[in-house]
Amino acid sequence: MRKPILLIICILLPFFSSIISANVVVSPAEISIDMKDGFQDGNFSGKITVFNQNSFNVSVKTFMKHPDIIEWMRFNRTFITNLSWINIEPTDMIILPNESADFYINLTIPKEFHENLLDQHWETWAAVKVTGTGSNIGGIQEGYLIRFLVDTPSRPVEFNYLLYLLTIPFILFLIVLIYFIKKSRK
Amino acid sequence: MRTIKKHLGIVISLFLIISFTSVITNINVKGDLSGPRSIYGYITYSGSGAIPNGTTVTLLDVNTGYNTTTTTGSGTGLYVFTVQYGVDGGDIMAISCNFNASGTWYAGANACNLSTSGPADKVNFSVYTENISISINDTLWDAGGLNPGATGNSNETSDSYFNLANVGNTKVNIAVYGENITFDGNTWYLKSTAGHNNYTMKYKKYGSGTWQSISYSNTTFRNNLYPTNNSKWWFYKISPYTYWQSFGLNITLPTSADSIPSGTTGVNVTFWSIKA
Asked: If you average pLDDT over residues B96-122, what whole number do you get?
């Protein structure tokens, strides 16, 4: 219900707290994956380290996001096809003074999409939002965006899997060959 | 005949074993990456002459043979470059560079404060992992008692009240975004103009004279903020550079509201930094 303006008696104090500004160091500034040897099968992890230089705890929240300032994207980069293929863990953490914490980016591209995703050059941002603890009334907060660059294979990598399959006949052939060699000695 | 068959069998067996091994190798994937490393260096020409436009600087990894090239612009007596290298980790600690122009050149790199005079050839550069870190001064701003819908429902600081500095070791861009105010199940929405249940937040950079709206999504606050003046970036002392940005904030409460919070409340604003 809309209240008459004259009846509003406000004791609101928009307020920026002094303890919010947190001095942390985030590294690296950028992570790249070049899958020239073939699509990775979900076992990749890129590590981001956050070091808390303050004398107080800091709260860190992390998430992956598409770039939302397009002009900041690297040349010739595009959004990843599906953001759900990337996640970062953990998503929440308290870091004690003068200690660091590691956050891991996991990338899994489902195999059924591989053949349609050759020669892709993606850019995704890992967001690390840092706030000082001890205040719940708002304030100035610091955030860090780590560029996560992914280059998919430029040629079909299923060829490797084909070779993999061929090894089975190779082994069978080897067994047969050894058999005949032994037989020829008799 | 039997000997020939025996040797043939050994050769074929070896071939198959090698083939099998190579297949296994080809499908190996990369594990943890340490992130790219950057090499910061400079070249300058003898005297005060400008570096010819299009001069290429090639950095060669003496260990792997990997090389990468950067090209100078025109009309400058000092060319500072940044080159990405080492995306697959490793500890490549020495890189040689070669300049393809003749004459007397001076070259150097950060971190080791190394310099040499030309022709600059096989200059060692140090590499290190980049980090990003910003610092915002911890000055308290109490915007005071403001009345939604009343005259004087806004307040602002001077344009130098806050200061944001790049205290990392690489150049960054800065974005900003604000959030809605929620209280007791109610929401005041961050908009570009104040209205019913809508409030505004703005910033003004030092000396700019213009208030800019802070929106609910990221917008550019500042580009190319250089790292704090430290030894790794000593060469930037020669040319103009800035590693900090002062600014002020303005907040205007709704012109009317369904509800008002009781007591003190606050506003969130976040400054995001990203490698430029």
From this structure: 43
Residues 6+ positions from B265 with CB-CB distance below 8 Å? A12, A13, A14, A15, A137, A138, B181, B183
B147 → chain A, closest CA residue: A10
pLDDT at residue A175 in the model: 82
Regarding whether B222 and B161 lie in a shared domain, the answer is: yes
DSSP state of B121: B
Task: Round to whole Å and give the CA distance between B167 and A110.
Answer: 40
Q: Which residue among B135, B144, B274 sits closest to A13, beta carbon to beta carbon?
A: B144
CB B96 within 8 A of CB B133: no
Interface of B with A in 170-189 (CB under 8 A): 170, 173, 175, 179, 181
State the pLDDT at residue B211: 96
Least confident of A94-103, B2-11, B26-35: B26-35
pLDDT tens, residue by residue, B202-211: 999 998 989 9
Identify which of A143, A171, A184 has the shortest CB distance to residue B271: A143
Alpha-carbon gap, residue A22 to A131, rounded angstroms:
6
Residue B43 has pLDDT above 50, yes or no: yes
Over 50: is that where the pLDDT of B232 sits? no
Task: Give the best residue of A2, A9, A12 to mutate against chain B (max B CB count within 10 A).
Answer: A12
What is the rounded CA–CA span in Å between residue A95 and residue A52? Answer: 7
CATH number of the domain that residue B53 is part of:
2.60.40
Indicate if B108 and B220 belong to the same structural domain: no
* Rounded-to-integer distance, Cα B239 and Cα B76, Å: 10
From the DSSP assignment, how many helices (H) and strands (E) are in chain A? 1, 10
Which of A13, A15, A25 is opposite residue B133, by nearest beta carbon?
A: A25
Chain B residues in contact with A68 (beta carbon < 8 A) = 217-218
Structural domains in chain A plus CATH codes: 17-156 (2.60.40.10)
Least Cα distance to A23 among B237, B267, B133 occurs for B133
Q: Closest by alpha carbon to B165, among B249, B220, B228?
A: B228
- The answer as to whether B11 is a domain residue is no
Indicate the range of A108-117, B41-50, B214-223 predicted with least confidence: B41-50
Classify residue B149 by its DSSP letter: T
Q: Are residues B176 and B108 in the same domain?
A: no
Q: How far apart are CA B141 and CA B248, in angstroms?
A: 10
Question: Hey, of A16, A59, A137, which one would you mutate to test binding to chain B, going by the most B CBs within 10 A of its CB?
Answer: A16
